[in-house]
Specification:
By secondary structure, this protein is of the alpha/beta class. It has 37 helices and 25 strands. Helix 5 crosses helix 8 and helix 28 packs across helix 30. It starts with 14 loop residues before the first strand and ends with a helix.
Length: 845
C-alpha cells in the first residue's frame, strides 16, 4: 500500500538512528515501522476497530486508515532536517524532531484539504491524531494545552519544516510558506477552540469517548511500531506478536478434559441435567457450584452481547466459571486474540493465575505485577549467573514489556494504566485490547467516584473494540445503570436468587455487637477458651489497632495459642509464609490471626469464627467470606464490633455517607448489600445530574491526559514505601529459586552466601548503575524489603511524607534505624516510628 506523499529528492543518505558507528537510514526505519504497524494491525484485526470508529465520525474509513498509517510511518519525518542529520553524524543531537514532524504533517494535511482530497472533518481528526507524533518521545499532555503551546511556530521551526517539505514533489518555498501560515493562523487556532468548547456538532464529535479511544489506539500503534523498529536495529531482536491460536485452544481443551486436574469434564457430561436442576434438588456444595456454573454458561452461550455481569457468592466457583466462559469463546467462530484477567490485589492474582496455569501452557500465560518472577524462564535460560546480557533474556524482557502472551494476569491498576496514565511506557499496549476478552474480578474495589467513568469506558470498548467484558464479584454494583442503552450490549448472567442465596451458601451469620474496642478482648478470649474454635480471625481498620490487639493477645495467651499479625507493614515473604502456615494448620492449640483489610478479598483462608471492626458493608461481607469458607461447620458467626475510626479510614468514599445515613437499617439487616449498592449508585447519579459536578469522564472525553493521570487513583491509598534493610535467609527462599537467581546475578548475597542482604540491595539501587531493563527485573528483589505505610497526618498538621521528604531516595524511605521500631513478627510499630521521626526533626531544629 503506497504512502500518499512521495519524496522528490533522494533521502537515501538521511539517517534515523545510530549505534556506535553503524547507522540506520531514514528509509530503513520507515520500512521497519510500516512493517510492524501492518503486522500489529493484521495480528489483532484492528482494521475492524478503525472502521467502527471512523464510521462514528462519518469519514471515509479506507482513506482515513491510509492517512493514519502515514502518520505512524512518517512519525520521524522531522529527523530529515539538516540540523538533526549533522547532530546524528557528529554524535551529539541537539535539534528536536518531534515538533518538526508534527508541523510538517499538519502542513501536508492542509494541502490535501486545499486539493479537496479530504474534507474539514477529516482534517480536524487527522490533526488531533498527529499530536501523537509531537509527543511520541514524552508523556501526553492535555490536548488543549498541546494546542495552546503549539499555536505559535518559531522561525527556526518554520525553516526546518520548509526544508523537509522541499523534499516532497511540487512544494516550492512559497507554497510551503503558505501552508505553514495556514497551519499557524487557521488550523491550530481552530483546534485550540475545539479543544475548549462543544458549541457545534464537530466539536461535540471531537470531544467524545470515541475520539479518546481513536487517539489512544493510534498513539499506541505509533509508539509501539517505532519502539520495535528501533529495537530491531539496536538489539537485532525481531518481535513476533503472540496471540491465541487453534493449536493453543486444543491444548487448553485437552487439559480441561483431564479429570485428574479438573471436574469440568463431569460438568460437560451432566450439563443438560445441571441446567434443569432446581434449587431443592441440590445435594451438596460441589453440586451447587456445578449447577450455578451450568446455568451461567447456558445464558452466556445464548447471548449475543459483549458485556456480562456475574454475581456469585464467595465459594461459588467464580474462577472456574470464568475459565469455562473463556473456553466457550475460544471454541466459538470468533476466537479472541487475547485474554486479560484483571484483579485488584496481588494475592488474588497468585491464586487465579495458579489455577489457570493448570490448563494454559506455560509459554502462553504470564503475570504482570511487582512480585512475580517467572521461575520457568530461569530454568529454561542458558544464561550464566554472571548477569551478562543474552538474547534470550532480552527477548523475554521485551515480551514482558509488551505483554506478549495470549493470557495476561494483572492488577486493576496495571490494566487501567493503559487508559488513565499519560507516560509512554504505560501507553504501549492499548492496541492489544482489540478483539480480546477482559475478565474484571472484584470490581467493587474501585473507588465509587470512578464507577461512572469506568463503566462508560469498558462499555465503549466493548462496542468499538469488539471486546468481551466479563465482570465478576461476590458483591457486584449495577454499573450498567450509568450507561444509556446498556441493554444493547449488556447481559446479566447471575443465576436465579434461589441458587445464589441457597442455604448451602449461608455458612456465616453476621451479628452486630454493641461492643467497642475496649471490651473486644474479653469476648475474643471467651470464645477462644470455649474450645470450639480452632482458628479465629480478628480484623481491624488500622495498623495501630491491629498491632495493639496482637500484643494484648500475646500477653494473655502466651504459648497456649499461636497468634499471627498481618497488615501492610509485614513484608511479602513473611506474609506469604503466614498464609501458607495457617492454610495447612492442623494443631490442637488455637490459632488467632489479627489483620487489617488485607485479609478481605481473595485470601484463601478458612476460619471458624471472625470478628470485624465496623466498616463499609462490602468490606464486612468480604471478611465474612473468610469464615467457614469451606462450609465444614454447620454454623459460624462473624461478630461486628464498634470502631470510631471507620469513617476516617473510608473518608472520601461515597459509600461512607450511605452507610452513616442508613446505619440502623443496615445493622438491623433491613437493607442488604444490594440495597447498599443501589443507594450508592443513586447518590452518584444524583451528583452527576448537577451541572456543577465535573466527572472524570468529562476529562477523559476532553483528552486531558495529564489531568486524568494526576487526578485519578483507581483504588484509594495515599501510602509511603519504606525500605527495611533486613537480611533474608537462604533457607526462607527454598521455594523461590528465581529470587536466589536474581540475588546471585546482582551480587547482593552476604559474604557467607547465607542470606540476601537488604543493605546490598539498597546500595545497588542507589548506585544508579541499572539500565531500564535491569531496573524492571531488580524491582522484584526490591519489593521483598518494601512495606507500605499510610501517609498519616502527624503532630496534628504534617503529613508523614512531608516530614520525611528530605530523606526520601528514589521515592523510598530507607529505614536505617529500623531495629528500634520494626520486628519480624509485628512489622512496623507505626506509633514508635512516627514518634522517633518527630523527635529526630526536633533534634535537628
Amino acid at each position: 500500500m503506497a504512502l500518499p506523499f512521495i519524496f522528490s529528492k533522494s533521502v537515501e543518505n538521511a539517517y534515523a538512528h545510530r549505534k556506535d558507528n553503524h547507522f540506520e537510514t531514514f528509509l530503513e526505519h520507515v520500512k521497519e515501522t510500516q512493517m510492524y504497524f501492518d503486522l500489529l494491525v493484521s495480528t489483532y484485526d484492528i482494521r475492524s476497530v478503525f472502521a467502527k470508529l471512523f464510521e462514528f465520525f462519518n469519514v471515509d474509513a479506507e482513506k482515513m486508515y491510509n492517512l493514519v498509517r502515514t502518520i505512524v510511518v512518517l512519525h520521524d519525518i522531522g529527523k530529515l532536517s539538516v540540523e538533526f542529520q549533522n547532530g546524528l553524524k557528529n554524535g551529539k543531537v541537539e535539534a528536536t524532531h518531534s515538533d518538526i514532524g508534527f508541523y510538517t504533517l499538519l502542513s501536508l494535511f492542509v494541502d490535501l484539504r486545499q486539493q479537496s482530497k479530504i474534507d474539514d472533518r477529516e482534517l480536524l481528526v487527522l490533526s488531533l491524531l498527529s499530536t501523537a507524533v509531537l509527543k511520541h518521545h514524552s508523556s501526553l499532555d492535555d490536548i488543549d494545552m498541546i494546542f495552546e503551546n503549539a499555536e505559535k511556530i518559531s522561525s527556526v521551526q518554520k525553516e526546518r519544516v520548509k526544508y523537509i517539505m522541499s523534499l516532497f514533489n511540487g512544494y516550492s518555498e512559497t507554497e510551503a510558506n503558505e501552508l505553514i501560515q495556514m497551519v499557524e493562523k487557521r488550523l491550530l487556532a481552530n483546534l485550540k477552540r475545539i479543544a475548549n468548547t462543544t458549541d457545534n456538532k464537530i466539536s461535540v464529535k471531537l470531544n467524545s469517548i470515541e475520539m479518546f479511544l481513536l487517539f489512544k489506539l493510534v498513539n499506541s500503534l505509533l509508539i509501539t511500531s517505532d519502539f520495535l523498529a528501533t529495537v530491531d536495529f539496536m538489539e537485532g531482536i525481531r518481535f513476533e506478536p503472540s496471540v491465541i491460536t487453534n493449536n493453543l485452544v486444543s491444548r487448553i481443551e485437552s487439559k480441561i478434559q483431564d479429570e485428574t486436574i479438573s471436574f469440568n469434564r463431569s460438568i460437560d457430561e451432566q450439563f443438560e441435567n445441571l441446567i434443569r436442576t432446581s434449587h431443592e434438588e441440590v445435594a451438596n456444595i460441589n453440586h451447587l457450584r456445578s449447577v450455578i456454573t451450568a446455568k451461567v454458561e447456558e445464558k452466556f452461550l445464548k447471548s449475543n452481547k459483549n458485556v456480562f455481569f456475574v454475581e456469585i457468592p464467595t465459594g461459588g466457583g467464580k474462577t472456574n466459571i470464568s475459565l469455562r466462559l473463556i473456553r466457550s469463546l475460544l471454541k466459538s467462530g470468533e476466537m479472541p486474540k487475547k485474554v486479560f484477567y484483571v484483579l485488584p490485589f496481588i494475592n488474588i492474582i497468585e491464586q487465579s493465575f495458579d489455577y489457570f496455569s493448570k490448563f494454559v501452557p506455560h509459554e502462553a500465560i504470564n503475570r504482570f505485577d511487582s512480585r512475580f518472577i517467572d521461575t520457568q524462564k530461569d530454568e529454561d535460560s542458558k544464561s550464566s549467573l554472571s548477569g551478562e546480557p543474552y538474547e534470550s533474556e532480552l527477548k523475554y524482557y521485551y515480551n514482558a514489556l509488551f505483554l506478549n502472551f495470549p493470557f495476561v494476569f494483572t492488577t486493576h491498576v496495571g490494566f487501567f494504566d493503559a487508559f488513565l496514565r499519560n507516560s509512554k511506557s504505560e501507553n504501549f499496549n492499548f492496541y492489544q485490547l482489540a478483539n480480546s476478552v477482559v475478565v474484571l474480578d472484584e470490581i467493587q474495589a474501585y473507588n465509587p467516584k470512578y464507577w461512572n467513568a469506568l463503566s462508560k469506558l469498558f462499555f465503549s470498548l466493548a462496542k468499538y473494540f469488539n471486546i468481551k467484558v466479563i465482570v465478576m464479584s461476590a458483591t457486584l454494583p449495577s454499573l450498567q445503570e450509568f450507561v444509556e442503552d446498556s441493554k444493547e450490549i449488556f447481559d446479566d448472567l447471575t443465576p436465579p436468587k434461589e441458587f445464589t442465596s441457597h442455604v448451602l451458601f449461608k455458612r456465616t451469620d453476621i451479628e452486630w455487637l454493641d461492643v467497642d474496642r475496649a471490651n473486644l478482648t474479653e469476648l475474643v478470649i471467651e470464645k477462644v477458651l470455649e474450645g470450639r474454635y480452632r482458628k479465629s480471625l480478628v480484623v481491624f481498620n488500622t495498623i495501630k489497632d491491629s498491632l495493639s490487639f496482637y500484643r494484648t493477645l500475646k500477653e494473655v495467651f502466651g504459648d497456649s495459642a499461636e497468634i499471627f499479625l498481618l497488615n501492610s507493614t509485614i513484608p511479602y515473604l513473611r506474609k506469604k509464609k503466614i498464609i501458607e502456615y495457617i492454610k495447612a494448620y492442623n494443631n490442637e492449640h488455637p490459632l488467632i490471626l489479627v489483620s487489617t483489610q488485607s485479609i478481605e478479598a481473595g485470601v484463601d483462608l478458612d476460619f471458624d469464627i471472625g470478628f470485624r471492626a465496623f466498616a463499609l458493608l462490602d468490606s464486612i461481607i468480604q471478611v465474612a467470606g473468610r469464615v467457614n469458607r469451606n462450609g465444614k461447620r454447620t454454623f459460624a458467626k462473624l461478630y461486628v464490633f464498634n470502631d470510631e475510626s471507620w469513617s476516617y479510614v473510608y473518608k472520601g468514599d461515597p459509600r461512607t455517607k450511605i452507610l452513616r445515613d442508613n446505619l440502623k437499617a443496615f445493622t438491623s439487616k433491613e437493607v442488604n448489600i444490594d440495597g447498599f449498592y443501589d443507594k450508592t449508585i443513586e447518590l452518584l447519579k444524583d451528583q452527576l445530574r448537577q451541572i456543577v459536578v465535573h466527572d472524570v469522564f468529562d476529562e477523559i472525553t476532553a483528552m486531558k491526559f495529564k489531568t486524568v493521570d494526576e487526578k485519578v487513583k483507581l483504588i484509594d491509598g495515599d501510602s509511603l514505601q519504606i525500605f527495611i534493610p533486613f537480611d533474608i535467609s537462604i533457607e526462607d527462599l527454598a521455594q523461590f529459586p528465581s529470587i536466589l537467581f536474581l540475588a546471585r546475578k546482582y551480587n547482593v548475597l552476604t559474604e557467607e552466601n547465607q542470606a540476601i542482604s537488604g543493605k546490598l540491595v539498597w546500595k545497588t539501587l542507589q548506585s544508579h548503575s541499572l539500565d531500564f531493563k535491569q531496573a524492571k527485573e531488580f524491582s522484584k528483589l526490591l519489593s521483598l524489603f518494601l512495606i507500605s505505610l499510610f501517609n498519616y497526618v502527624v503532630n496534628g498538621k504534617t503529613r508523614l511524607r512531608d516530614l520525611l521528604k528530605d530523606e526520601l531516595e528514589s521515592g523510598f524511605y530507607y529505614a536505617e534505624d529500623y531495629k528500634s521500631y520494626y520486628a519480624d513478627d509485628t512489622g512496623l510499630d507505626v506509633e514508635e516510628f512516627v514518634n522517633k521521626k518527630l523527635s529526630s526533626e526536633y533534634d535537628f531544629i
